[in-house]
Structure formats: C-alpha cells, structure tokens
Amino acid sequence: MRVVIQRAARAAVTINGKVTRSIGNGLMILLGIENADGEEDISWLVKKIVNLRIFDDENGVMDRSVIDVDGEIMVVSQFTLHARTKKGNRPSYIDAAKPDVSIPLYKQFTDTLTSALGKTVVTGEFGASMAVELINDGPVTIIIDSKNKQ
C-alpha cells in the first residue's frame, strides 16, 4: 500500500457537482492498493498514520499527531499511485489492484483507521470521478509505502 499524506487545513470531495464530504483540520490521505497488499500492510500503515507527528506544538515544532490535535482524516482511493512510468509516456497501472481486491482492502483500511482514530474517517467514493479540494497546511506532504518499512 502506498499513501500520500497531506496535512490539511481543510479538504473536500465533490461528486457530480456537489460537495459530498469534507473535513477541517487533519489529514487528507490518497491510498493506492496493489495486488500484494493485505492485513499486515493495513495494520502497519494505520499505526504509522495516527502516530505521525506532523502537527505543530505550542512552540511551532512538528511534534503532535492527528490524535493529539483531535484532527479529522479523509481517505480517497487513488490507484494511480502505483503507476509504472519507466517505459514510454503512458503510465501502466498493472500493479494497482483490481476492484475485487482493492474494494475490500479499502474498506478494511478505513474501518481500521476509524477505530485507531476514535472517530469516523471521511472517505471519497470508490471508483467515482471526484474533484478533490485541499488546503495543504504547511505545506506538509509525506509519502509512505508499506513495502519500504526498513
């Protein structure tokens, strides 16, 4: 699993011209799922995400987690995070999991993240064409791949 984590002042998802979901202060996460992903990837990433100290403390030092600041989280499925761009100019998405694999893992990821956060995680709509708005606070953007744990 690969995630792009962005510290957000606010974020929103628009589907069919309507803002359907939004968050305030917290994390906007783009989630890419590949065929080799499973429960171990979910557990490791969720623990890493909720404990990642990327929010400022009273001294302006990034030393607080999303839990510490009572932040919100939005997760949007993003198969293009597994694009292969080595050959040619058209990306290949062969490593991205198909819906029969990715939908259950996406649901499990968001459920596990909701449990770890202690509040409902806001999601995009899997497979929908979405417009995602983000006010990136900082800007702070972190990329984590569960296959690169060391």
From TrEMBL:
Reaction(s) catalysed (UniProt annotation): a D-aminoacyl-tRNA + H2O = a tRNA + a D-alpha-amino acid + H(+); glycyl-tRNA(Ala) + H2O = tRNA(Ala) + glycine + H(+)
Signal peptide (from-to): none
Residue numbers covered by motif Gly-cisPro motif, important for rejection of L-amino acids: 138-139
Enzyme Commission no: 3.1.1.96, 3.1.1.-
SUPFAM superfamilies tied to this protein: DTD-like
Broad enzyme group: hydrolase
Cited InterPro entries: Daa-tRNA_deacyls_DTD (IPR003732), DTD-like_sf (IPR023509)
Keywords: Cytoplasm, Hydrolase, RNA-binding, tRNA-binding
Coiled-coil portions: none
Molecular-function GO term, any one: D-tyrosyl-tRNA(Tyr) deacylase activity
GO biological process terms on file: D-amino acid catabolic process
Predominant cellular place of this UniProt entry's protein: cytoplasm
Swiss-Prot/TrEMBL domain comment: A Gly-cisPro motif from one monomer fits into the active site of the other monomer to allow specific chiral rejection of L-amino acids.
Known partners and oligomeric status: Homodimer.
Role of this protein: An aminoacyl-tRNA editing enzyme that deacylates mischarged D-aminoacyl-tRNAs. Also deacylates mischarged glycyl-tRNA(Ala), protecting cells against glycine mischarging by AlaRS. Acts via tRNA-based rather than protein-based catalysis; rejects L-amino acids rather than detecting D-amino acids in the active site. By recycling D-aminoacyl-tRNA to D-amino acids and free tRNA molecules, this enzyme counteracts the toxicity associated with the formation of D-aminoacyl-tRNA entities in vivo and helps enforce protein L-homochirality.
The name this protein goes by in its record: D-aminoacyl-tRNA deacylase
Annotated source species: Marinilabilia rubra
